[in-house]
Amino acid sequence: MGTLGRAFYAVGFWIRETGQALDRLGCRLQGNYLFQEQLSRHRPLMNLFDKAPAVHKDAFVAPSASLLGDVHVGPASSIWYGCVLRGDVNSIVIGSGTNIQDNSLVHVAKSNLSGKVLPTIIGDNVTVGHSAVLQGCTVEDEAFIGMGATLLDGVYVEKHAMVAAGALVRQNTRIPYGEVWGGNPARFLRKLTEDEMTFFSQSALNYSNLAQAHAAENAKNLDETEFVKVLHKKFARRDEEYDSVLGGVQEKPAELNLPDNVMLDKAPKAS
Q: Which residues pair with 120 in a beta bridge?
């Protein structure tokens, strides 16, 4: 590092130190709200090398998810809380209406023992259950990946196929149309019924609709969030059944009895 480089490094270091000191001071001034973050500071989208995530404007990415590098997310798709999609050495492509549920991991492979370049491609209206791991694989439209399933390099899941929860699908395995595979290692279990295959599309649609509600909630600013919290605390009905079980008092925020002059969409502006 040359003289100029060291100078830039030193300036950057002191700017960061000053920012952290100001943050600590601000937390002290907040008193009882010390270190209680109301809104996430996490950065869901991050460039890597010369690649940047491309997310359709109608897709939902949860504030605690992480999309890094060459990642493409199509319309009406949803990436849920705690997910990591790391497109560093290859690309990740997700179609439309697909949901990648909480704490799932999607990665890619630059090469493997067979020398193949392996991006991860997930089609339209696919459901990927919680905590699944997808590594350098392809999942066709309207397939279903169960919770905690692991798909290794080169796996190919055809349309309307299902990987059961907790299954480990070995490298280069192909799961044919309309079949359920499960176990460790995964093997054929049975054929899917027409009703089950129809459910896959409905499951994807349900998650797409749910994602819209989460997106609207996450788009609220701090003033709107605090205003709704106050309304719930003041006007919410009591849930007597819940109280009787716990022996305590619990407000039920799903039902609000608001005065006629109170509107939820009229949060007070910050002064």
A: 92
